[in-house]
Amino acid sequence: MRVFIFSDRVTDVKICFVGRRAIAHDPIHDNLLHILQQIGDVTALYPPQPDVVPDPIATAVQRATFDLYLFWQSDEIASRLLPAIGDRRIVVVPQDDAVRERSPHWWQQFQTHQFACFSRKAHEMLLRAGLHSSYFQYFPPPVPTPGLRYATAAFCWQGQAGENQDIQKVAEICRMIGATELYTPGTGDYPEAIDFPVTRIATDRQDLMEQAAASCGFVILPPHAGGFDPFFLQAMARGQIVVAPDSALVNDYIGHQSSGILYPAENLLAVSRLSNDDMDRISASARSRIRLGHERWQRDQGRLKSILMDDGKRWSYSDYAASFGNLLRQEAHKRTLQIN
Question: I need a labelling partner for 159 at 20 to 30 A (CA). Which of 14, 65, 183, 294 fits?
Fold first, then answer.
């Protein structure tokens, strides 16, 4: 188990941060930890397993007098430590998948505590269960416009975990949008049945991976990409066109045909070829969404600090998620098909 103690003290608040080792360098995690350091002294604990409470953590919780416990993507650990923490303040940043998979009854054990969600769908599900939840959207800082050397090439993220069937679907998406070649992490060759130019980059060549990821005009998430990976936000910041399955979290950030392309995982034919004007418009819109979103995220950190401290302040908030706009566009598209 890893233990870190941060001493960028502003107040006398003592904070216990319990996170997941596998995503300890997620940019949302890093931002949240930085915000906590501005509030008080932070002791960060990373259990080696997401559902087992190691003795050092149990001992730390029982003996230390922390004012605030924040559980980052470690819902099961929070549940098991709940009796030992008692009535001290707990804030849970839950896993999006776990909110959907577990029953409302399971989450109601935290009914006297607070949730901070970075998924609108998870936030709404917790509200329906009668729990205290606040919704936030993280956006990375904008970056200078890169010179895309392979504007018609595509990079498939999470390709190293995909099966040949997934890559074949990604190759089909490439044909539909007009991409001419595909780069993906991994080693070896794909079957000839794919019948599309695919270049695999060894995962131990991080320099080549980053170069390919930043140089392609398209970034594609495969149909069964799991979880939330902020990589696609970095691609949007560079002005790349992200093509992703229309799923929770992703569609909070991408507006279909506006700041990216969303497709139903079960219907790849819904993806259409993009003109040069379409590509320029979507690229500019993606960069603009990141720039404006990052400005809102910086302003919204005051609300997050207030919720963490439970200082009783009232905050207004507008949901800038792309989901509502996506629903409107989908309905308009259906009506157009019916008319024609």
Answer: 294
Measured CA to CA, the distance from residue 207 to residue 211 in angstroms comes to: 6
CATH 3.40.50.10540 applies to domain 150-289: no
Q: What is the DSSP letter of 82?
A: H
**β-pair type (2-6, 40-46):** antiparallel
Contacts of 334 (CB under 8 A, 6+ apart): none
Predicted local confidence at residue 159, as pLDDT: 46
Tell me the C-alpha to C-alpha distance, in Å, between residue 52 and each of 48, 97, 108, 115, 291.
Answer: 8, 19, 21, 21, 40
How many Å apart are CA 310 and CA 92, to the nearest integer?
A: 14
Domain segments of the chain: what residues?
2-139+295-309, 150-289
The predicted pLDDT at position 206 comes to 67
pLDDT per 10-residue tile (average), the chain, 340 residues? 47 85 74 92 86 78 84 92 90 90 94 94 94 94 76 75 67 89 74 74 70 85 73 90 87 91 79 86 94 94 92 68 50 52
Q: 181-185 and 13-18 as β-strands: parallel, antiparallel, unpaired?
A: unpaired
Same fold, 2-139+295-309 and 150-289: yes
Alpha helices in the chain, H assignment, sequence order: 27-39, 55-63, 75-85, 96-101, 104-107, 120-128, 164-177, 206-215, 231-237, 250-253, 276-309, 323-339
- Tell me, what's the pLDDT at 6? 47
Q: Label residue 311 left, alpha or beta by phi (over 0 means left) and psi (-120 to 50 means alpha).
A: alpha
Q: Say which amino acid occupies 314.
A: R
pLDDT at 105: 94
